[in-house]
Amino acid sequence: MDMNHGLFFVPPVVVQAGGYDDCRDAAVVVITAGAKQAPGQTRLELVRRNARIIRGILDEVLARTREAVIVMVTNPVDVLTHVAVRHAGLASGRVFGSGTVLDSARLRFALSRRFVVDPRSVHAYVVGEHGDSEIVLWSHAQIGGTSLKAFCASCGDPLAAVDREAIEKEVRDSAYHVIESKGATYYAVSLALERILATLLRDERSVLTVSAPVGGLYGLPDVCLSLPAVIGRGGVDRILKADLDPGEIEGLRRSADVLRRAIDEVEADGSA
Ligand SMILES: NC(=O)c1ccc[n+]([C@@H]2O[C@H](COP(=O)([O-])OP(=O)(O)OC[C@H]3O[C@@H](n4cnc5c(N)ncnc54)[C@H](O)[C@@H]3O)[C@@H](O)[C@H]2O)c1
Q1: For residue 137, is it left (φ>0), alpha (ψ between -120 and 50) or beta?
Q2: Which end of the chain is more exposed for a tag (fewer CB within 10 A), N or C?
Q3: Active-site choice (82, 87, 123, 130)
Q4: Residue 269 host element (H or E)
Q5: Residue 81 Cβ contacting ligand 1 at under 6 Å
């Protein structure tokens, strides 16, 4: 009701509660369902529980359609995307996770504030795990096609020394701060999903840092993590293999190892 009462102010759209049967002719199914950590429950128990929930939901959806692209949002999103990719067995790219799309937006916001420019004029990516081991691709951060260093020089700001660690920390810890302050994150993640859905439904072929299988790229193990990828109507069309610094590749490997260990723990339960 609350959303429907706002329809006067936006382009026509139908908002309704539905059930699994509504998935029959869906172009996209977004999965955000999951259990919250119960008192006394370990992180591993929670992941295993959510893996079972995701498999149950996928069985219901796939019994009705195998045509929809499936977008995973439930956390830990990279581990559960891996579970979903395996369980669904759909064509490559048709199951992926929202990954670090939100983290990249947080990074762009932080840089836009630091350099006083529109966040849409900042190109910068957070890759790897959507979580503590994520990394910023500083070697590819640009403002209007200009490296951060050149941008600083051109505006007479000798800072070239952006406080990278402070910005990384701000981006990495944002979710904790929002959750601590108001219980959950809702607005930015919804806008991030709106962006993902727009590129899927309109075949916009935007480059977004979504979570998808990356086994083999940069010598990474069989995990789902985020890298810049072209997203179109069929899902992830291709993952870009950027020319990364050795330190960035090392960071990516560390992030992949964290995820591989988490996946192994879930698989030991027979949940993946
Ligand atoms: N990937 C990201 O960038 C990102 C950002 C924000 C939130 N999240 C994640 O999205 C998820 C949802 O967040 P939220 O704040 O809406 O949490 P929430 O706890 O408010 O909502 C989860 C919902 O899932 C439902 N659910 C549980 N088991 C189910 C099942 N078997 N079938 C159907 N529904 C079931 C619960 O009833 C609840 O309504 C969480 O896992 C959160 O961590 C991800």
Answers
A1: beta
A2: N
A3: 130
A4: none
A5: no
